[in-house]
């Protein structure tokens, strides 16, 4: 069965220490009551460099499983299933970077394996831990939501084969909208252009509609969410970790020298946002769930549902037709 320490430090490892995995190693090394036990990577030079930087050891994959209570899996998506299943079979708790796997069926098998082994499997939808999103999550139940609009835009990345913009970027907002509404879409429509590097999707949740845009051809980095509610407009900036709530004020009619004038000023509220690094919040939550045996904030089932939706969006766009379609669940 899984290893769940009670008093000693939790021994953490990172499997795959590219740009994302290296950040996981950094944060694990900083967390109290956590020991960064070791790291591994297919590139030994990279593994040793990260190990030296964070005062740990670069070891083979099998050794990670022998030493660690928990691991982050930050390898390419095509390897998620094999690596995560091996970790779970070794009774090691896993945080796997999104998406949970290449296919929904693989994701379901991983979720079942985690249950059978008594292991925690958390999916790395990091935006759930953005303080601005957490602030909106606290507000959402009091709002009569009409629509949500998310934009996740940026310039081309510096690599020859950029990943799919839907799976790499839009998946974050699919997960956020599902979690805020505590629901899944009834229908989805989508279209894209520029070889799949710009995509839009519209998702219907009963009386609520969500519009998502993801782009790698926009010459400005944008990460925003707008919630239109019956009595207010909520603007979220992921990068600034800020939330603004715009409310209607009552109009005023002023009489000056016999002339009636109209003035209508908006009211802007700025709720407190406890700023912090989302990755640190994510790993703190993961470690706490392991220590207490509680359910993770982002479950394997959450990861599977997000993957199902982005796979549908990708299939609607397609590589050849690029025409909008609608499919109801």
UniProtKB/TrEMBL annotation:
Domain Gfo/Idh/MocA-like oxidoreductase N-terminal stretches: 10-125
Pfam families per the UniProt record, alphabetical: GFO_IDH_MocA (PF01408), GFO_IDH_MocA_C3 (PF22725)
InterPro entries, per the entry: Gfo/Idh/MocA-like_OxRdtase_N, Gfo/Idh/MocA_Oxidoreductases, GFO_IDH_MocA-like_dom, NAD(P)-bd_dom_sf
Start and end residues of each GFO/IDH/MocA-like oxidoreductase domain: 158-227
Gene Ontology MF: a single term: nucleotide binding
Superkingdom, taxonomy of origin: Archaea
Name by which UniProt lists this protein: Oxidoreductase domain protein
